[in-house]
Amino acid sequence: MADIMTPRDEIEVLHIGDVLRADVGNVVETLKYSGRQHALVVDFDPLGGRQMVRGVFSASQVARQLGIPLHTTEVARTFAEIEAVISQPEV
User: Which of 62, 69, 55 minimizes the C-alpha distance to 26?
Assistant: First the structure.
């Protein structure tokens, strides 16, 4: 996980069981609601009980395949994130 630029606790994670019951609209709304461009799909290893990555959803890939624009907006989740944005010098 050292090569991931998003902190682990900020990664949007969907369980494979939920994805199998969802349609594309559900995935799109989840990405929009979370303010993320990507969501990992995970399952649990029945033998080891650990999470395994089964796939990833990408807002840009979904948009390309549907032939529609799809914009997700990054959502601040902490006061520190809000402060970091508002304290940036204007360009």
Answer: 62
Q: How far is CA 66 from the centre of its chain?
A: 18
Of the candidates 21, 20, 43, 38, the one whose C-alpha atom is nearest the C-alpha of residue 30 is: 38
**Measured distance between the N- and C-terminal CA atoms of the chain, rounded to whole angstroms:** 34
**Reported confidence tier of residue 56, pLDDT bands at 50, 70, 90:** very high
**Which residues sit opposite 43 in a β-bridge?**
52
- How far, in whole angstroms, is CA 28 from its chain's centroid? 10
Report residue 44 as tokens. 């649990």
Transcribe 14-70 into DSSP letters.
EEHHHHHH--HHHHHHHHHHHT-SEEEEEEE-TTT--EEEEEEEEHHHHHHHHTS--
Tell me if the pTM is above 0.70.
no
